[in-house]
Amino acid sequence: MKQIHLAAQLPGIHHTTVWSDPRSASQIGFESFARLARTAERGKFDFFFLAEGLRLREHKGELHDVDVAGRPESLTVLSALAAVTERLGLAATVNATFNEPYEVARRLSTLDVLSGGRAAWNVVTSFDAFTGENFRRGGFLDEADRYGRAAEFLAVARELWDSWRAEDVRADQVSGEFVRADAGAFTHGGEHFDISGRFTTPPGPQGHPVVIQAGESPTGRDFAAREAEVVFSKYDRLDEARAFYRDVKSRVAAHGRSPEQVKIFPSVTYVLGDTEADARERAREIARAQVGPRTALIYLEGFWGRDLSDYDPEGPLPDIDPEPENQLLKGHSTFRNGRAETVRRWREIAEQRGLGIRDLVIEVAATPTFVGTPRSVADAIDEFAQTDGADGFIFVPHLTPSGLDELVDRVVPLLQEKGVFRTDYTGSTLRDHLGLTAVSNEAVTPNEAASRRAS
Predict the structure, then answer these.
(1) Is the pLDDT of residue 453 over 50?
(2) What are the chain's domains?
(3) What span, in angstroms and rounded, lies between the C-alpha atoms of 390 and 244?
(4) Residues comprising the binding site for FMN?
(5) Whose CB has fewer CB within 10 Å in the chain, the N or C terminal residue?
């Protein structure tokens, strides 16, 4: 029987968070992050995850009004959370396009040391000029090259972590602090990076932070299968999730890796009720709060590439064709590729089910994954995992910061009762929680370490 892994995310983009709910608190205040993280740790979750964009999205030249402005930088938040949690993994999204390996590797290694081995890195890429304007790089990197840079970026970070070899590090008998002998020397020459020097930060208890990736395109999936230890999935419907799971796991095996050492986590939501009917009604109310009339039209405009403000949000879909090359919503890949095919599929769904604009957007973008009583939701979570739709789940609550309370108090005990989820942590590091092999900083040179990975 597969043991299920659980994680939590405090959302920062999209329409998930219902800010109008009186129980909703600050989206940027540290206490909100701390409360959600403490709740996740109380529930014995594997990790707490923060997504991050490097620019607020814009819709028709104005800030997209469902994004959180003023959100603090993720690694800084997680470093603070390390002081108010003890076992919970801490996962940050850090961009491999607009950063440099030395700085990122140092900050992640620092988090791993400070947290006692709980750090994780979600490796993401960005190629668009819209984001690049913040860095004065414009669209300098072709889309086809983004994973090439990311792969070399990750390889360099691993070289830097490996540069502190076991034989070069000893603990001072009085202070217990690291004393450097010949540690940290590195040299790397490649297509994107040509650096050398000494890495100043010792490795944390895990050796390497856990590497996370969210590959969706064939290239992205292959990158994730080759490099990642946790793979995020957008598929929260069981049939699609199983197909993604099979595909990625087969790619993992094709790269000579054990599929058991790569965990797949779809992003999911939930709504509970005392009865099934009560849960369905709550789900309907939450979805309509998440997708108001204006949000529904903005969402549609992202795919149509047209101004649809004259259309009734409760009325039928626009009878005009989309303009796939016209991008009204900038800063998110969802609205870039395959829009014509998406619109065609949506027309079919709307016609078959008699859905207007707002109800269609709710159907395709705001329908909760798990809806029901605590018992039926626990059963559905278990079935999803046991039938290979996932190894674990990232729960994205619609309320900040109280959104996990019901799940932890009413569903987690039932999963523990089933014997599919831990009753307590059995290790101290994130790799322990995930059942991943610890990375040993062997007595090898950085070039030897890179050669081993390349082979």
Answers:
(1) no
(2) 5-273+370-454 (3.20.20.30), 292-365 (no CATH)
(3) 9
(4) 93, 147, 217
(5) C
